[in-house]
Design brief:
Strand order of the largest sheet: 1-2
Number of helices: 6
Strand content: 5-15%
Shape: elongated
Order of helices and strands: HHEEHHHH
Radius of gyration: 21 Å
């Protein structure tokens, strides 16, 4: 029960932080580029960790032929888990697609779809909650624009 409470506390904190960061990025145009990269970077970091880090060691042989190899977290996912991770990683790349297309829609769709995926798979995808918060912040902020901020100018006489 305490694991669930800790997870919900983390998710709620990141949800509020994503909203604040998203609205701050709406105000400051330069921050939008940073916000668009948070979700994808978090997602790739989690994926890389699971591909490299191991759960247990698998040892064979005796004496001079004794060998141990580490079993990674990713190798324990199976087909269902690997498909879920692939969908989540693709969804977390949506802010980059939004920035490329100059359209908010991909990030908004991903910000809505990711909680459904995270809720459907529960603790298996809990490590991607920070990536979802980054996608949510990018969806609120909108894509980075290439045009300079419009400022009122007074004509000189």
């Amino acid at each position: 029960m305490t694991d669930l409470m800790s997870l919900l506390t983390l998710a709620t904190t990141l949800f509020v932080a994503a909203i604040v960061l998203g609205f701050a990025a709406r105000r400051w145009r330069g921050l939008r580029v940073v916000v668009a990269g948070i979700g994808p970077v978090c997602s790739l970091a989690v994926l890389l960790y699971f591909l490299i880090e191991g759960t247990t060691s698998y040892c064979t042989g005796t004496g001079a032929t004794f060998r141990c190899s580490e079993v990674t977290y990713a190798s324990t996912w199976g087909v269902r888990g690997s498909a879920a991770v692939a969908v989540v990683v693709v969804l977390t790349m949506a802010p980059v697609v939004s920035a490329w297309l100059h359209n908010r829609a991909p990030a908004v769709v991903a910000a809505i779809a990711l909680p459904a995926m995270l809720g459907l798979f529960g603790f298996e995808l809990a490590a991607w909650i920070p990536a979802w918060a980054g996608v949510l912040a990018a969806a609120i902020a909108g894509p980075p624009s290439t045009e300079p901020a419009a400022k009122e100018t007074v004509p000189r006489i």
